[in-house]
């Protein structure tokens, strides 16, 4: 599958830190729309990102992602039942390796930001909701790609991204099936080893 549809994904995740306080006051759809718009514009203006420099992309993501996405929650849900029996150290390693995997796999999407158009569908959430989905599609060369964002509201009132739907496939469910297979074969340590090896392969250009 082509990776251009992940451009708004990474744009959302790399929203500027200045928006962190604003996130608490914004509705999920307004937050997604503003962050995607602002960061796509910022990425287009960075020549190093346009060249696909992994260090620049990594630095951008590492500096901006943590206030706006909950990788621990994403990893927990993707790992499934095995998360409950994992040690704190295993949970830490799983979260870090999964985050690295997503970054290395999709870093090229940021470098591809050009003139893609994002269409935002009517938001049907309610004021008292604590979980919400923002429905969009990305138009690239005239082809619309379904891309939806799932967020939850923290105790402090901030919305955080934790799952994505691309063409009907939710990220957590997709990885949960793969992770369950690895855990069944060789336990949580085997899953950590698999993720670590895959990240090494990606770092080597494989």
TrEMBL record:
Gene3D superfamilies: 3.10.450.50, phospholipid-binding protein. InterPro entries: MlaC/ttg2D. It comes from the Bacteria. Keywords: Signal. Residues 1-23 form the signal peptide. This is Putative phospholipid-binding protein MlaC. The lineage of its organism: Bacteria, Pseudomonadati, Pseudomonadota, Betaproteobacteria, Burkholderiales. The gene is mlaC.
């Amino acid at each position: 599958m082509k990776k251009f549809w992940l451009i708004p994904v990474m744009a959302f995740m790399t929203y500027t830190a200045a928006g962190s306080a604003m996130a608490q006051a914004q509705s999920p759809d307004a937050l997604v729309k503003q962050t995607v718009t602002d960061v796509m514009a910022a990425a287009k203006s960075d020549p190093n990102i346009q060249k696909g420099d992994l260090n620049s992309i990594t630095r951008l993501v590492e500096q901006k992602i943590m206030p706006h996405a909950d990788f621990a929650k994403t990893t927990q849900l993707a790992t499934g039942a095995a998360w409950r029996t994992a040690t704190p150290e295993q949970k830490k390693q799983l979260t870090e390796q999964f985050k690295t995997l997503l970054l290395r796999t999709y870093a090229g999407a940021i470098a591809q930001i050009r003139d893609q158009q994002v269409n935002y569908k009517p938001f049907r959430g309610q004021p008292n909701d604590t979980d919400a989905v923002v429905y969009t599609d990305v138009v690239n060369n005239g082809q619309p790609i379904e891309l939806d964002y799932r967020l939850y509201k923290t105790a402090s009132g901030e919305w955080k991204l934790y799952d994505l739907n691309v063409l009907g496939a939710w990220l957590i469910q997709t990885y949960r099936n793969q992770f369950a297979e690895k855990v069944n074969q060789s336990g949580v340590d085997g899953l950590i080893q698999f993720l670590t090896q895959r990240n090494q392969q990606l770092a080597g250009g494989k």
